[in-house]
Amino acid sequence: MQRALSNRLEANKLAFERLTEAEPVLIDIRRAGEVVPGFSANMILTSGAPTPWPDYTGGQREGIIGGALFEDLAEDRDEAIAKLDAGEIKVGACHDYGCIGSLAGIYSASMPVFVVENRASGGVAYCNIYEGKNPRRLNYGVYDEGVRERLLFVQNEVVPVIADALRDNGPIPLKPIIRRALGMGDELHSRNSAASLLFMRELVPSFLSLAASGDGHVSRAVEAMTEDHYFFLRLSMAAAKATADAARNIEASSVLTAMAFNCRGFAIRVSGLGDTWFRGPHAHVEAKLFEGHTEDEISWMGGESPIAETVGLGGFAQACAPTLQDYQGGSYETMLQRNTELYAITVGEHPTYLIPPLGFRGSPTGIDIFKVLETGTLPVLDIGIAGRDGGQIGAGVVRPPLECFEAAAEPIGDAIVMTRDADTGWALFAEI
Fold first, then answer.
1. How far apart are CA 138 and CA 150, in angstroms?
2. pLDDT tens-digit profile of 13-46?
3. What angle do CA 150, 155, 160 make, to 5 degrees?
4. What pTM, to 2 d.p., does this model score?
C-alpha cells in the first residue's frame, strides 16, 4: 500500500506542476469551423458530459435548437428538431473538441472562438466570444431575433477589430493578466472587471492605430468590450481549459481535470482516469436572484466555467473578490472561510496566483478526489444562475454532489483503489 500511496503522490505532484507551470497565451481568433479539429458544418457543441440528443431538456435543448437556426441548418424550429432527431444535425460535447462552454455552451461552425495555446505543453483550447450584458443570450438558452442580431454584431463588427488588433499586437500572455487581476479584486470567474480592463490595455495602442486608419468599427467594438465586466471571462475559461488539459492522463493521479454541468446533472474528470466522466445529480446552490425572480425558476442548462476552479481560480480565489457578496450573496467572512477550507482538498498552493487577503498565500490548486472524500469538503464554485424560461436570473455559489467523487473512487491507473470504511469514511486500502 505504501508504494501505491507513493505512486499517487508523485502523480499528483506532476499534475500540480503542469497546472501551475502552464503558460496560456491568446494567439488567434478564428471561426470554430476553421480551427477546431473535427468540427463539422452540421455540428452544434454544448456543455457537460456527452448526452444523447433526446435527453437534452429545457434551456440547454433550446440553446442547441437556437444554434442550429443561427447556423441556417434549418428553416425553422420544427425542421431543426426533425434534423436533430434524424442525426442530420449532430450534437457534440465541448470538451471533446478542445472547447469550453459557458452555461449551455453553444458553438456552431461560423462562430468565432479565442484560440489559446499553453506554451508550456503545446496544448490548445478554444472558447467562443461573450455575447454581451443582456441576460437573454444563446448560452442561457434563448434564441430570438434580438439574440441573432447580437451574435451577428459580435461576429461581424467586434471580432474583426479584435483580430486586427491582435495581429498588430502579437500574441497576448494571459497568465500575467490573471495574476494582476487577482490583486485588483477579481477571482476570474464571477468577477472579471480588472482582467477585462487589463486585457483592453494590451490592445489600446493597436485600437488607436486602427481608428487612425479609418476603421469605423473600433469605437463600437471597444464599447462592446467595456459595456460590462465579463468580456475576459471567456479568455479566462480558455486559459483554464488549456491549463487543465495539460494535467490529463497522468497515470495514478487523482487530481480533477474538469468539472461541468449539463441539464441532467454534474460530472467530473480525473487525470488518471482519462476522458471518462463521473456523473452525479445536480449541484447544491446558494443563489442571490435578480429582482422579480424566485428559487422555483432556477434551471440547470449546462456550464463548464468551473474549469476556473479546476485550476485554482473562481471559488478557489474567492477571497480576492469581496464585492462578489453584493452580486452573489453571502458575506465576506463566509467567503474567506470557504476559501481557506479548500486548502485541505488540494495538492498545493499556486506559486503565481496569490490571494492578498490570505497573506498572499497561493490559491489552493489541484483538487484531489481522495482528499474530498476523506475530508467531506466539497469544492466551491462561483456561477451564474439560469431561469427555466431562459436568460440569467441571478448568481451564486454551488458545491458539486459527493456522488461524482464517490463514482470516481475507482482504480487510478493500476496503482490504488479506495473503499468506504463504516467508521472512518473513505480511505486508501490496497495496492492492486
1. 10
2. 999 999 999 999 999 999 999 999 999 999 999 9
3. 135
4. 0.93
Identify any residues that bridge with 44 across adjacent strands, giving them in sequence order.
91
pLDDT of residue 212: 86
C-alpha cell at 173: 500572455
* Run of H or E residues at 321: none
Assigned C-alpha cell, 396: 451564486
Using one digit for the tens of pLDDT, what is the confidence trace for 365-411? 999 999 999 999 999 999 988 888 888 888 899 999 999 999 998 75
Per-residue confidence (pLDDT) for residue 220, from 0 to 100? 86
Tell me the DSSP string of 350-386: EEEEEEGGGTTEEEEEEEBHHHHHHH-PPP-EEEEEE
CATH of 248-431, one of 3.40.50.720, 3.90.1700.10, 3.90.79.10, 3.30.70.260: 3.90.1700.10
Q: Which amino acid is at 220?
A: R
Does residue 116 register a pLDDT over 50?
yes
d(Cα 270, Cα 431) in Å, to the nearest integer?
19
Assign domain 23-237 one CATH number from 3.90.1710.10, 1.10.287.600, 3.40.50.150, 3.40.50.2000. Answer: 3.90.1710.10
CB 337 within 8 A of CB 344: no
